[in-house]
Amino acid sequence: MKLFSCDDCGQQLYFESTSCTQCKSRLGYDREQRDLRVLRERRGKAPELVEKRGGESRLLRLCANALERDACNWLVPQPSASPYCASCALSQVIPDLSVESNVVAWKRLESAKRRLVFTLDALGLPVVGKSEAPETGLAFRFLQAAPDDPVTTGHEDGVITLDTAEADPAYREAQREKLGEKYRTTLGHLRHEVGHYYFDRLIADRGQEPRFRKLFGDERADYQEALARHYEKGAPTGWEQTHISAYATMHPWEDWAETFAHYLHLVDTLETAQSFGLAVRPPDRQRVTVRASAVDVDDFSSLMDGFHVVTLALNGLNRSVGQPDAYPFAVPPPARDKLGFVHDLIHERRRERG
Q: Could you tell me whether strands 139-143 and 159-163 are parallel, antiparallel, or unpaired per DSSP bridges?
């Protein structure tokens, strides 16, 4: 994630900023420009952005979730058929907001979704809602489980379902320990599940299954059988030499989703490092400075080298303050090849679109 700056005073801002900490200007995220913009109040109306382009004016207003619940900082181009921004409009179902704990969980989920959409936009991947493309569009359902009505996090036909309990750090940590996972975050869940969606868009829709199977295996293998086997027997011995995570061993679809999620981790981490001008010196190597924005680099080897350097520093910093590794993964050669495949598919699609 890149850093932003205030249009009025130049103060450093973060993606989640709703106002400038220095000059107090109200801010909104302009998706078209991929930037935070200063808003103005006009004649008692809600803050808005009016931008002149040639002989035309461009008007943007805050998302309804910003105005009504202080739960968003994205802008909506006017006129629009929806009062919601492009990210919030993707949510088909949200929890009952009359319950305060649900409001807290929902805000965290929507915040993670906005970061997800930002990275997808940066990579040039299509983010189209079900309202625009009922058959191939994307949607999210944030559901609250009940004792007699559990929620299964997953993806089906472009609809991503997430249990709102995953926004509770205590619950999430308990599940991480119970399932023996090294890493479990709300953003990680969303990146994994959206990976299933892009399997259809990048592979199935484009006839890329033969290339996929050479690396990941045959996705036509019985999924339910694989699921039962995984939870009964666990990952096979030596999985660390072939896969990015234990869960990736379950089925080729899950291997792809885990790999796709890690690719998003990679580009977001490197863009953040670049924004801070990070320069580090790993053991036995010359100093490396992360210069280019990750999403603009075609050479996969350069990305992986930079990511390795940054995660060494990141994990070292975490350990120095008594925290577990921020990136608790090793990337064996087969998993690196799979990440390279994700990279190639995304950049091939970008070149096709021009």
A: parallel
